[in-house]
Hints:
The chain is of the alpha/beta class. Helices cover about 50% and strands about 15% of the residues. It contains 14 helices and eleven strands.
Amino acid sequence: MTDTQPDQDLLQKFDDISVKFGRARAALGKVVFGQEEVIDLTLATLAAGGHGLLVGAPGLAKTLLVTSIADLMGLSAKRVQFTPDLMPGDVLGSEVLEESAEGKREFRFIPGPVFCQLLMADEINRASPRTQSALLQAMQEHHVTVAGASHDLPTPFHVLATQNPIEQEGTYPLPEAQLDRFLLQIDVGYPDIEAERKMLASTTGADTAHVDAVMTSEDLLAAQHLVRQMPIGEQVVEEILTLVRAARPTEDAKERVRNFVAWGPGPRASQAFSLAARALALIDGRHAPSLDDVKRLAGPVLRHRMALNFAARSEGIDTDGFIQELMAGA
């Protein structure tokens, strides 16, 4: 075997996985209309091995997107509707005391819905902070601890959470520590008129579109392995570091950043940029990420990892607009 053979095998695997993601992207486009960027970013989140937070008003097909992805990838999926009365045990599972026929009593662990490959946490910001934090260990460490015993989660394990806008009544903003566990925050906007016209024709007739599996969980794990093997150029790395560090209100930051940013992104933002940029390249069939990938990911990576202060809000500056300023000056 020649020295180039391993590289050729790797490239062949890359091309095979990229083709499968292309099929998944096309299939999702037939059931979720006018959300091409949302589809790409969600697939990139999974290919990078991360969790995604989908933020948008009700009725924008967030739930449909997640359930369709589970079907496409052949993942075991469960859905939890987060409500104010949902308890941590309702998500993680609990121990029950059982008595055998011989009269012996012992505790048995009953797994909760978190024990799946793709967990849809629907309207996650409607649950209490106590229940929200129950997902924290699962998302970061891929296991949960109940009554002092650790229980491993399936592989792969991903959380795709949906969230209504924070300004709506009856919501509890996610704490910063949990927000940071989401690789990307994907904002879901309203579709354009042509997409909405197609949606009407597709969803109000006698037949509704559905998706069939085009990938397996093994394909997804292979994609995650390939993403971490993909080279990333020094120029791309420098752009990532420059942008992330420019968003931190440190002593040597620009005056506008010091005046308007309450807290900035930590090192996980740089890691998210690196992984998600390579994942986008994989989905597009490119063998390395580009500077355009970094620009495309600036909002999804940074918007939930930084916060503006009252001075910024009083001047009508929002987070996405400020990120655009940072990109222009980076």
